[in-house]
Amino acid sequence: MSCSQHNLTDRTTRPLLSRMGPLMGAMLLSLGLFCAMASSASATPVGVYMAGEESEEVASQPRFEAESYPVKVNGNSLSSHKQVVQAGYVECQIVDFFGAASAATPTLAFSPVRTQCGGKSNGGSSVVVTIMSHECKYVLHALNAGPPYVGTFGIECPPEVNGYEYIAAGVCHIVYPPQTGVAGVSFENTGTGSERKIKATFNVTSLKYTQSAGCGKAGEFTNGTYTGSELLFGEK
Fold first, then answer.
1. Cβ-Cβ contacts under 8 Å for 13 (sequence gap 6 or more)
2. Predicted model pTM
């Protein structure tokens, strides 16, 4: 059973739509998608790429670069993104990243938006999953290694937020707390000129998370996995 669009969008932005009724909500969502597509179509591409090499000199170390700044650094999924925990997993076919950079940097933060997701319990049953970002972001950091380039994954949240939350079947609460330096990310440059992009591949295997008793087994764990790939691109 796939998650519905209502279940997949950050719930902190949805109360107004839920009060306006399904028809009006659908119209506004369609308008939002249309505006996003129109904005993307009118955007000017800006090449983004990995540069630098392993070095004792900070200025020479691997980093995310762009042809010009400021630049929007967004991403489209190249494969499904799957997150596995003790209680089961959530897999999303489409995951878009939204970020920005004002200068060359080894670290980029992204707000992820997921669609076409499905969840399954550890026993194999399909479940509806509600995703609540609580304004948390995914953080990619380039390590001082390579090329080939590798990096780490992290989650950053506002000070008052416990973490990125998934609610399965309304009773199982899974929370990924803020964390940094989780190994398992690689970066690869693609394209030329203004069409340069970065392929980010996730094979993360040691994410921290907590599960509630509604998941069958409550506790804190460090075996969360995150797999998938994303094509990062720049635009004005």
1. none
2. 0.84
**Neighbouring-strand partners of residue 121:** 88
Q: Give the side-chain half-sphere CA count within 13 A for 132.
A: 18
Asked whether 210 and 67 are in contact (CB, 8 A), the reply is: no
Q: What is the reported pLDDT for 16?
A: 29
CA angle 168, 20, 170 (to 5 degrees): 10
3-state SS string for the chain: CECCHHHHCCHHHCHHHHHCCHHHHHHHHHHHHHHHHHHHHHCCEECEEEECCCCCCHHHCCEEEECCCCEEEEEEECCCEEEEECCEEEEEEEEEEEEEECCCECEEEEEEEEEEEEEEECCCCEECEEEECCCCEEEEEECCCCCCEEEEEEEECCCCCCCEEEEECCCEEEEECCEEEEEEEEEEEECCHHHCEEEEEEEEEEEEEEECHHHCCCEEEEEEEEEEEEEEEEEC
CA distance 92 to 118: 6
pLDDT of residue 27: 42
pLDDT of amino acid 40: 54
Question: What are φ and ψ of residue 88, in 5° steps?
Answer: 155, -145
- Give the separation between CA 126 and CA 122, rounded to whole angstroms: 10
Chunked into runs of 10 residues, the chain (236 residues) has average pLDDT values of 36 33 40 49 92 98 98 98 97 97 98 93 92 96 98 97 95 97 98 97 98 95 98 98
Nearest in space to 129 (alpha carbons), one of 191, 187, 83: 83
pLDDT of residue 118: 87
